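From the methods appendix. Each design record in this collection lists the tokenized structure first, followed by the designed amino acid sequence. Records were kept in a plain field format so they could be parsed without special tools. The example shown here is representative of the layout used throughout.

RECORD:
FOLD TOKENS (79 positions):
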């Protein structure tokens, strides 16, 4: 049996992850990452989100931004 995914390519696991973002800043960051992934033509999944989060973390300059990105990465791997 073939499982269908929503038109935007998000599965339930990704949707659950996005819903755990606590602050509007975290939600904005995830929204930007989702746009980047989709515009690049890649499938939106945890691996793609993780890749973009780590890329942003490597470029982050402020402590606040690093803390937020680290929290988003940890949320990605929590149940």
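DESIGN:
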């Amino acid at each position: 049996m073939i499982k269908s995914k929503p038109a935007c390519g998000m599965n339930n696991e990704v949707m659950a992850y996005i819903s755990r973002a606590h602050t509007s800043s975290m939600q904005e960051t995830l929204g930007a990452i989702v746009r980047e992934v989709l515009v690049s033509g890649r499938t939106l999944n945890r691996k793609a989100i993780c890749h973009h989060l780590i890329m942003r973390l490597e470029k982050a300059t402020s402590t606040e931004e690093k803390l937020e990105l680290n929290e988003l990465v940890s949320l990605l791997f929590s149940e």
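APPENDIX NOTE: The domain at 12-77 is CATH 1.20.5 (Single alpha-helices involved in coiled-coils or other helix-helix interfaces).
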